[in-house]
């Protein structure tokens, strides 16, 4: 089997896919690009993904995949024994799909539009408002997740790729301390994933101490 190549940037959504790869056993290589400053690396990213977003995954046959949720589902298909998702006939599968789509379709956009509001609004006042609105929505959505799960993992007693999303996204705003204060179940998930020794290289590459 050929190698997968994952194009990413430290601390970004590529860390989710990198973590899934680390648990899957599939052969992969990670390439970190400078995506925030003009230059050849950013130009290469736009050649791979016209949206200029990471992650980008280059499959062994050379084809290109974007969107972290799609990548995670592909990894699950290629490594069904890795425990990244319930099997299609498992009663927990619908909940897995529901929360996966919720994370990428509802929570993820709060960062897309709120992290750099100047991309979408010219006026300073409007930028501040967009940032505040997306911050509030992000917190509201996480509270919905918190009340919707029983723990200790997103799907109850079984860990899945959903918990990798929680681990990575809890590093983003509103930040790990906010999760400890307001979403303790999600905070415990993030801490538990953080302690997996198989993810130590991913942690070192994305959040070096």
Automatic annotation (TrEMBL):
The protein, known as: Glutathione S-transferase
PROSITE patterns linked to this entry: GST_NTER
Domain of life: Bacteria
Pfam families associated with the record: GST_N_2
Organism field: Aliidongia dinghuensis
Domain GST N-terminal: 1-83
